[in-house]
Amino acid sequence: MPNYFEISPTDDVLTLQQGQGAAGFAVRYVGERAVEAKAKAVALQGAEQAWLQMAKPATKDMQSNQTQTFKVLVSVPPGTPAGRYGLRLDVMSEDNTDEEYNQGPVISFEVPEMSEPAPKKEKGFPWWIVIVAAAVLVLLAGGITWWVMNRSQTTQITFSEAAAGVIESDTYLQEGITRVEIKSKATTSVGALKPTTRAVERVPAGAIQPTARAADLHRASAMILAPVLPGHLQIYRPYCADALPAILPAGSYKFQEPILSTASPDQLNKCNAMALRFSLQQPASSVSVAFFGAKVEYQLRAYDRDGNVVDSDVASATPYEYETPSTVTVSSEEAQIDHFEFGHQGALTMIKSIEIITDGGK
Hints:
By secondary structure, the protein is mainly β. The protein folds into 2 domains: 5-111, Immunoglobulin-like (Sandwich), CATH 2.60.40.10; 152-183 and 241-358, Jelly Rolls, CATH 2.60.120. It has 1 helix and 26 strands. It has one helix spanning 129-150; strands spanning 5-9, 13-14, 20-29, 35-44, 52-54, 59-62, 67-75, 83-93, 101-103, 107-111, 153-157, 165-166, 177-182, 193-199, 218-220, 223-225, 234-238, 244-248, 259-263, 276-284, 286-293, 297-303, 309-316, 326-331, 337-343, 349-358. Strands 2, 4, 6, 8, 9 and 10 form a 6-stranded mixed sheet that branches. The chain has a 5-stranded antiparallel sheet with strand order 13-20-25-22-23, with no helix packed on it. It has a 4-stranded antiparallel sheet with strand order 1-3-7-5, with no helix packed on it. The two termini are 48 Å apart.
C-alpha cells in the first residue's frame, strides 16, 4: 500500500486513570496534493469500538508535508474484565478513501481490576414528596444562576492592527490572559552576539595578529573562551536579550492580517523567533493555538499552578502557506491549565489566534 500518511503515536502504551485516557498521534501527509484528512479510531485486541471516540475535529485540511495532531479518547466502562487491550489510528483522504489510506501502529492500554458499581436499592415513594417538590421550586432560580456562572465559556483571541508594535505584558487582561512574556532562553549561539564596552587582552607590539572570527570562539561549560584578539575588539553579549512580545502589522512576512510574535523594541522585523509564555486569568480545560511559521516542530505545553506539565502538543508549519494555519491543542479534564508556553526558539513564530475554554467555577 502506498504511503500517504505517516502516523506516529505520542506514546506506545496508554495509561488510563479511572478507566479514562487519551492517545495522541502526529500525522504527516506526504502526498502531493491538498486533501481533507479524516482520522478514525479502530478497536483491537478485544477492545470495544464503543470505548473509543475521536476528539474533534476528526477531519482536518492538510497540504503536502504538513503535520497535524489527532487524539483518540478512551472510556472503559466499569466491570470490564482486566487485561491488555489495543487501538490504532487510521487516516484517509475524504475524497479517495480506498486508495489514499494508511493504518497507524497499535497502541496498548491496560485495564485493571474494577469492581461493579453497587446496585441501587429500590425505595418506596416517600410520603413527603410534596415537600421535596416545593423545595425544588424554591431552589430552581438559584440553580439556573449557578448553571450560567459555571458553564463552559470559549474565548477566541485575535490581534488588532491598531495595536501593532511591542506590547505590555498585561495587554490581554480583559481577554482571559493576565500576562504574556518571552520564555527565558537557556543558551545563546555565538553567531547571535553584539559588542559591549569591555575590552579583551591586547596583543603585544610586533606579534602576529589573529583573525577575529566567530568560528575562533569555543564554548566550554557555561563560559566562552576567546583567542588573543587585537585591542580594539570587544567581548559580546546575547543577541535579542531585550526582545518583547509584539503584534506585527498586516503585510509582515506577506501575511495579510496582524499576528502575535516577538520583536526587538526598536525594530519589529528583528527577533521574531522566540517562544512565548502566557498566564491565564482562571484555569482552563483547553487551549488551542493557530499559527504559521517554518518547517520545524512547534510545541504547545500546558502547566498547572505548581508548574507540572498537564499536556503538550506539536505541529509543524508550511512556510508562506497562509490558506490554512497549523494548530496545536492541549486539554485537561480537570480544568487545571494555569499557564502555557508556545513557539520555537530560533524559528519564525506567527500566532494567528488563541482559543481558551474555561469551565466556569472549576
